Amino acid sequence: MTLKDIAIKNLMRRKGKAFFVLAGLVIGVATVVGIISFIEAMTRDINHKLEKFGANILIVPETKNLPLVYGGMNLGGVSFEAREIDQSGLSEIRTIKNAANIAAVGPVVLGTVVIEGKKVLMAGIDFDATHVLKPWWEIKGAAPSGSEVIAGADAAETLNLSVNQIISVNGELLRVAGILASTGSQDDHLVFTALPVAQNLLNKKGVVSMVEVAALCNACPIDEMVNQISGKLPGARTMAIQQVVKGRMETLGQFTRFSYLISGIVVVIGGMIVLVTFMGSVRERTREIGIFRAIGFRKKHVMGMTFMEAGILSVLGGIIGYGLGFGATWIGAGVLSEGLSKMVAFDLTLAVGALSLAVIVGLAASAYPAFMAAQMDPNQALQTL
Known about the structure:
There is one protein chain. By secondary structure, the protein is of the alpha+beta class. The protein contains twelve helices and 14 strands. The strands form three sheets. Strands 1, 5, 6, 7, 8, 9, 10, 11, 13 and 14 form a ten-stranded mixed β-sheet that branches. A hairpin with a 2-residue loop joins strand 9 and strand 10.
């Protein structure tokens, strides 16, 4: 009879203690897997949503002047005619090292126009990029095509504009394709049209006033991307909108640290359950271990039996624990949000890690009981008969 056979038969004879050890490992592994899987799903979901939040890199003309703006109030005026960015160089942005992390590049040309006898700030934009840069936009009507415009909520109210109305813009007749719902930002005060139309109306062909870039920055180095873009556009100033980027990274970092903290606590608790249970098992098997030692079993054989039992239970605990943890995460995420459940995916690395964790914890926790069993004096053990 081999050590493995003895270990298996002993587990079968002591089903209660075996079940208790297995339950401790399963609960520990399932909790760790559930927490990490849920955090990873939330991380993917948060990152997916934040990637749609809009531009987080801004490219503006290089200037030595300080902007006179405080609390959203412009105190010194802005001269958009001062200096512009050459539009032909914007294609270089797509050639940077981290180009795969760029979701959208939106050039913007700004300038004042006269509409119905009133000066209005007009923005020429790329409406294809706007779907990524400004996903919160809600337009009553339709996006402009050709010689059409959309008006911000405040601009439409001030100018008394309506959908399909024909207006005069610097002497050119344009149709109002839609009215932008209130956003609570400077967009409410502007009139938007396609970039080429605005460049023609403002006499700014081939140049733009600024460029908005949406970067997918869950794992990309945002500062490095800023440096890369600056190298491609030496005549412009590239800035990261730190509030968005840092807020995103801090949120994801907090979730990760929280998951590791809770996981560590649960692993310690699971190890203590295994340790206490195996210590009790060794005490109950004093006579049995004495008989094994008396008939020629060496210390390493006694330790091998204990480790074999712990290893069998650990492997079972790792497999069952991962299945329960993954299933609970998928069900729980589905209850919280249908979109969140789609972010829960099988992770081979986590599965292998869960199995390895169960084995390491099980063997480490059973090391002291195994040592105590091996050090047991067979004469004293047999005296208990």
